[in-house]
Fold these 3 entries.
Entry 1:
Amino acid sequence: MADENEFFRPIRDFYQRSVVSCTADDDLVDIVARMRERSISCVVVVSDGRPSAILTDRDLRNKVVATGRPPSTLRVADVMSAPLHTIAEDDVLYEALYRMSRHNIHRLVVVDAAGALAGIITVTDILRVQAHSPHQLVLDIEKADSLDALRELHGRIQKLIVHLAGTGIAIREMVRLIANLNDQVLIRLIELLRAERYPDLTPDFAFVVMGSEGRGEQTLSTDQDNAIIYADSLSAAEVARLEAFSQELIDALISIGVPPCPGGIMAKNPQWRRSLAAWRQELTRWLSTPTPENVMTGSMFMDLRPIYGRTDLVEALRDHAFHYMSQEQGFLVRMAQNMTRFAPPLGWFGRIKVEKSGPHRGEVDLKKAGIFAITDGIKALAIEAARLEGSTHDRMEALVECGVMRPDQFADLRAAFDFLVIMRLQGQVAALRANATPSNYVALDRLNAMEQGELRLALEGVEKFQSFIQHHFKLQLLRN
């Protein structure tokens, strides 16, 4: 799998360092002459040493005539494209692929650690790495024209992850890859349904994902957690049409191999498909009445991430939650308290406790043992600090930046979290290879002595983090 690993190498190993630059005030005809002399298709526009825009041959074809002015009177600023899409030298190659696909562009400007122009990377550079790759999967997803095609692609994603699981790729990059590919499948499915069955569907809605999918932390055992938020201005007919669309969409997702949520947290169900005003009301009910059920539901909902549609609806709902919890912390405190109830399975002298009976006898539930406590504890801190964007890794880094966590705390907790997620993914891959159903469990006797030692250290790290949460939120003052 060395070829697949290429996509997790840094951009610095692939980008073109020879790049022509200019300023926005340069005469357009002079820059076009330079492009022709060097047989290049783009020039990077710089301002104060930093890239700010780009001039491409497409800009010349589409914009010069559109200005209605003689080319000799034009400056670069009159036809250049901005804002500019950039990527850092240390970002991985797959991240470049994902951004190109997401923004429908063919090149990215590469910047160094100081934000200065370093070079450029194009889709052609990526294609040279390997034809059969995550990049090829993205291209095939974009071209998929049926449910059958998406079903086959979903299976290919699973096979790719199985192949990559033992290659030493950082778990953060692995789960990001899974999330990105699954996002692409979902977006393509929505596009197909709208084109073929719902061309009249209102654009005034957002399809969102939540839980681990919302955080971009999926592994092979992730089921659906999604919802729809729609504008308050929709007519009854538009709402009815959106309802029909949501039911077909979720059924189609299930048909291509994405498991349904056992708890029914899917946009096809009315309680997970509401107007913005109705969602505000429901969210307020959860936050103002922090029963155990409302805490679990509300916590999962706070991971919401837009996949398709109007992102402003999602931001409005998140802002509502932040505003409420900045004035009333009862929900947040109960959420923190809930994560401390999931005690790591450690007995006397650090002995790891396993299930004593049942189908998982001799196994450890890694989600309950520590993954949940870390993700929800970090989430509670991130909500309090209004730094909820991104994955658990992203939130940890943000909490260090704003002084909530010390760098050494972050390093220890990240190591514990990564190990637990790696163990879970490896267990899921092993289950698939044995034609079994992937789960959150790992058999203790299948871990060698070193892995058992690392697991013990990870669980001890979870215990320390729970103590930190108890102190931070003053949980000792709560009455149960």
Note: The chain has 18 helices and twelve strands.
Entry 2:
Amino acid sequence: MPGDLPQFPTLPEAVDEFLSSLLRPTTLLVAVSGGSDSAGLLIALHRALSSGTDSKHRLVAATVDHGLRPEAAAEAEAVARLCDELSIPHRILRWQGEKPKSGISAAAREARYRLLREAAELFGADAIVTGHTFDDQAETIAMRAARSADDGNLGLAGMAEAVLLDRRWWLLRPLLRTRREAIRDFLREQGRGWIDDPSNVDRHYERVRVRGSLRDEATLSPEAIREAGLRRSRLAAEAAGLARRYLQVHCGVLAHLDPHVLGEEVMAVRHLLGTLAAILGGRAHIPAAGTMDRVMAMLSGGHAFGGRPDRITAGRVIFDLRRQGLFIHREARDVPSTHVQPGGRIIWDGRFRIQNRSGNDLIVGPAPPDREMAHAMFENVPPAIAMRAMGAIFHLEVASRLAGTIDKASVITAPVLAPYDCFLPQFDLILGRELGVLFGCDEFPAAPIKVFGRKS
């Protein structure tokens, strides 16, 4: 039935909806490669803002030259000329230094986001906007489904419409419901061309192979993607509720869950435990499905009260089940000792951000064992767990004995939520905020756009 066909907004429709959903005057940094998607987005945004009688928003642009193809520099200059024609401030960002021999796609993506964050800082931008389309979304979901089609695979929700980068800048993707061909139709109507990147047809890359396989298959439903996103958001909200009711965090290194949590909905418990494992282990991703299967199997052998104690190490953390509940903390193995030079900043063990404002070279390492101090710091915690947890706390000392004692007021420390501090998708915003409060982090900034409840 024609009425059952998925509805894909045109480029002007998507841009108008995006601009109308911005909650405050915003400086938008558009990432433009020169390809049809990003060029179309830039031109459509410029057209919409230029036609407004009282536009509250400002447009700037940046192009990343990864230096991986000889043509890249000329393509970046072509984008610069387009921006100059449209009177849009623009910067070319170059990925300098030696490139890795393997994992180049992931390294290039990391470099791209780093350079875009730097450009956002220079421009004073509030948000970074990219031209990811529905076609990109379908390819992403297909790749993730190939790894696991299980409903518990959070990746089946696809790319988030809004992602917080480095706790500061929001990355926005307004074209996730628009088809690439519609963007190219718009560019043709405007008499504009675009640059075709040869890597987009290189079957060496997984995404290109998936793109070819999708051409002859039924189009993934936008409504199905939206429902998957809502399921993921609901799961995170349920996990946040469990954290609010059952979780205590001691000194930023020990999580204690009341035993009643074991009677709650299994998937929400699993999601909370996986997230806690990542935070306490200083890892950017929750443990793999097989690892979490082992954790949940261990817990299923216990009971809320009076069950047999058990313990398992998974994802660089120890899950210790006791009568008092479930305790989770970093294992003692491979906890680093690191120098922090005067004026330097580091993230220690993926778990704490440390800034040295003193004039001394400092060493940051695990705290030495001290039974009395452990008992005082981890009150009402089993002594063996308290001692292990103490080894997960950072300890500061001056590198040179001649330098004297540490001026602690000159050392700024803050906990890090490793899965969320660099990359927090809208799906997990509620859970990230709840855990941020419990771990004593600064509050995550609000999104400049209403990202929940959008229609497909």
Note: The two ends are 18 Å apart (CA to CA).
Entry 3:
Amino acid sequence: MTYGPMLADAVGLLSSGAPEGGLEGFRAAYPHTRTRLVAQREEFDGSLHHALLIKDGDGATISLSWCADRALPWPLRGVHRAGEHLLLRVNGIETPVARAIACLDFIWDESALADRLIADSLVREELAEAREPLSDAALQQAMDAFRRARGLLTGAATRAWMDRNRISHRELEELVAVEAAVAALRSRVTAGRVEDWFAEHGGEFDVVRVARVVFADVPAVPDAAAFLQMVERAFADGSARPGEVFATLRRGDLDAETAERIFGAPPGTVAGPFPVEGGHLLVKVLAVEPAVLDGTVRDLVERQIFGEWIEERRHAAKIEWFWGVAERTSGR
């Protein structure tokens, strides 16, 4: 059997009692395979069971499990307690997982949360097979960035945030480590692809700086010189919607027709009105700037490439929602 030595080592790994510690050594010994260690905590008795998934170059997967003497019998694995189905309890009021997920039904046309849940699962699947170890220095750097991003600039602020979110120091480190691992995965996925993607699609990141206002009714288009005075009067008499007047827009954030009209307008001229949610948008174009592959745009391009990578994996994934009817969830 060509797999004999590898399977023998895999059994030794699973029966060692601490397979997580020997996983990197196993991967180093068999670099041409993709290996994933799956851990399952049994709700019935709290025992921890491990299985090893080994994917060879031909795409086939070997699933290997090992059961210790007097361990939980196989027919009882996967038994669920009733409490497993609870997501939240507030003042004694329980929210089952099914009800929480069903709440998405009210916002299904804007299913950002559902999409993020699926993307998170796909990313965790990849990290489980090919996650690189994080050094102490890298973890500290990621922790500093995590705190800065949330305005946790002092120890007291960090502790207050942890208390508010019921997160221990160990859980915080795990959260940051996962965030750093995702960033590293994104770098691996996008390596060597940013420049070519930008050369083909960079126009999506062209910038236009504008003064804008949304009117309840279709407005008359004023002279450019009188635009800001018109905005002031409109806010004063209530005919304009509250909102930010000066804004920076990117071409890719606009629909094709609106982008063509706004980016095609010479600076200093007025474009619109455009139908938008809540009224009609009128824009004075202040400046138009072609995209440059600086640090900000590079980060946006990497996120775009990473999003496309996730979408490709999603199309090939088997997705099961454990709620509702199959007709409602099979397309997710």
Note: Confidence is low (pLDDT under 50) at residues 324-332.
